[in-house]
Amino acid sequence: MNRRESALTTARRGSIITVLALAGFAGVYVRALMFTPIERFQGPAQKILYVHAPIALTTLFAFGVTGLLSLLYLILKDRRLDHLAASSAEVGVVLSIAMLITGPIWGKPIWGTWWTWDARLTSTLFLFLLFVGYLVLRDALTDFEMRARFSAVLGVLALALVPFIHMTVYWFRTLHPEPVLLKPGTPSMPGAMLVTLLSSMAVVITLYVGFLMQRYALSVLEDVREEEAALELS
Amino acid sequence: MMPPDVGVVATDVAWRVGYRWILKNISLTVAAGTVTLLVGGNGSGKTSLLRVLAGLARPAKGSVSCQGGVGFVAHHSMLYDSLTGRENLAFITRLDGGHAPARVDALLKQMGLERAADQRMGTYSRGMTQRLAIARALLSDPGVLLLDEPLTGLDEAAAQIVVEVIKQRRQDGHAIIVASHQLVELMECATDIGFLVSGKLAAWEPVNGRDAGAVMQRLRDLVADG
Amino acid sequence: MVAMRVPSCSGFGIWWQMANGFFAVAGAIAIKDLAVEWRTKTALVSSLVFAILVLAILYFARDATAVSAFEVAPGVLWVTFTFAGMLGLNRAFLLERENHALDGLRLTSATPHAIFLGKMIGNAVFVGLVQLVSLPLFILFYNVPIWNRLPVLVLVMAMATLAFVSVGTLLSAMVVRTRFSEVMLPVLLLPFLVPPIVSAVQVTWRILADRPMAEMTGWLSLLGAFDVIFFILSIMLFEAIITE
After folding, report:
1. Between β-strands B192-197 and B35-39, what pairing exists: parallel, antiparallel or unpaired?
2. pTM of the full predicted structure?
3. How much is the ipTM here?
4. Nearest CB to C194: which of A136, A149, A168?
5. Is B54 exposed, middle or buried (0-12, 13-18, 19+ CB in 10 A)?
6. Is A222 on the interface with B (CB under 8 A)?
C-alpha cells in the first residue's frame, strides 16, 4: 500500500498546487486587465499575450519533458519515467488546445482572420497532432511493457522532430509579431508589462506542475490497481 | 563458462506479463546428449519457458545459457508462405552469415521434403510445414533444440520423422527439450521429465522406465499437491 | 575450452567481415521482401493505381480558369508520392506477422540494425518503383517541363524518400502490433513528414520555375540534415521495438 499512499499524497499536493495556480491565474488576469498599460499598436487585444505566450512556452516545455523522459526510459527502464512522460504529454496536449484557441482569439482583432498559417500557430498545430498521435498509440497498446517501450521510441523521435518543425514552418513568411522576449539583447517590453508577463509565466508553469502531479498520481494508482488484480489471481 | 557436457542451464528464471508472474524461480540443467520432456497442463508456462530459453523473451529475473546455439520449433513455422521450402531455408542460412546450399539440400532430404522443396510453403500440409520448421531449426546445427508441441496435427508417418530427428540429435550429443501433451510417441526417446505446475518446476526426474500413463499420474499428483 | 579466433592480419579484417555480414543480412532481407511482394504484387498494384488516381483527381480539383496546373504541380506530386507510398509501408512488417516470422529472424544471428536496414531498403525500392511509374505520368498530365532539371528532381526525390522510409519503417514496425495499423500509420507518420515534404515541395516548385540552385540549397540542407538525423535515430531505436 506504500505506492498507493504516496500516489495519493502526490495527488493531494498536486491539487493544492493547481488551486494555488488557478488563484494566481485570477490574480494575473486582474492585473493584466486593470493594472497593465494598453499596448500602443495592438490595443486591448494585445493583452491576451499574457495568457497565450506563457501557455505556448509551457506547452513546448511539456513536450520537451516528454521527449527527455522517453529517452531516459529507454536507458533506465524505470516505469515511473513512462508514467511521467505520458502525463506530461497529456497536460501538454491540453495546454496546446488552450494555445490554439487563444491564438485565433488574439489574431482576429489584430489580423482580421481567425486562422493564419503563421509560424508559431502552425508549429503548435503540428506538435499538437504529433502528441495526440502519441496518446492514440498508447491507447492502442494494452501490454504495458510494450506500450512504455513504443511510446518512449515515439517520444524520442518527437523530441528530435520539434526543431525541424520550427525551422520548416519559420521559413515560411510569418505574421507573428516580432519575438519580444526571446531575442538577444534586452526585452523590448516596458517594465509593467514585463512583470505581468513573467508572473503569468510563473503561474502557468505552476499550473502545469499541478496538473502533472495529479495525472502522474492517477497513472500510478491505475498501475497499483493492476498489480493488486494480478496478485489476486495468483 | 559451461562444462562441455551441459546443454542448457537456467538459473532462477522468472518471467511475467504485466504484473502476472508466468514463470517463477525456474532452475534447470539439461545435459548434452539428453532429451527432456516438459509436461504440464494448459497455462502451466511450457511455451513461455521455451521462449525464454530460446532467447525470444527476456526474463525479469535470472539467467539462461545454451551451449552451441539454439534451434526452436514452435507452433508457427516462422517462415514465409510465398517462398518455396528451399528458398525459405536458403534465406535463413544467409541471415546466419552463410551460404550453404549443400546443407539446405541435406536437411530437405532428411526431412523427406525433397520433392516439395520447390513448391511454395503455402501449399504444404501441416506435417510438411512442421518438418520444414524443424529443418529451419537445424540449419545452424544448434547445440540445443527446443520443440513446443511438435507432434500436434501430425499423422503417424510425420510424427515418426520427428521422433527420429530427436533420437539422432541426442545420439550426436546435443541437448533437446520437448514440451508436449502427446507422451506416448516421445517416451521412447526421452531421458528426463520436467513437470511444470503453475509456472514452477515441481519436479525434475529421470524417466526410470515409466510409461506415459505413469508420467501423467505423476503430473496429476504434483498438481494436486501444489 | 573456448577457441580463440586470431584476428586476420589487422583489425580492418574483422571490420570488413562484420560490415560484409551486416550488409549481406540486410540485402538478404530486402531481396526476400521484394521477392514475396513480387509474387503477389497486391500492394504494388494498389499503390500504383492509387497514385494515378490521385494525380488525375487532383488535376480536376481546382478552378482551371483561375489556377494553372503548373501552380499546383509541386504540391500534387508530393501529396501523391506520400500517400501512395504510405500504402506500401505496412506490408514490410505485416509479412513478418504471418507465421511469427519475426521470431524466426530474431533467432538467427541477424542484428536488429541489419533487420531494420533490410526492411528499409525493401520499402525504399517499393516506394521508388511507385515514384518511377508515377513521375512520367505526372509530367504527362501536368505538362511540366522538367527534363533539363531532372537530375535535381531525382536528387530531391531520393532525399525525401530516404526520410520517408526511415521514419516510416520504424513507425510501421510499431503500428502493426496494434489493431488499426492502416489508420495509425498515417496519424503517426504525417507530422514527421512535414519537414521533408515541405522542403521537397519548395525545391520542386523552384525547379519547375527554373530558379537558380542557390535558392534551393537552404531547403536541401534542411532535408539533408533531417535525413541524417532520422536515419540514425530510426536504425538505433528499432532495437527497442524488436526486443522484448
Report:
1. parallel
2. 0.92
3. 0.92
4. A168
5. buried
6. no
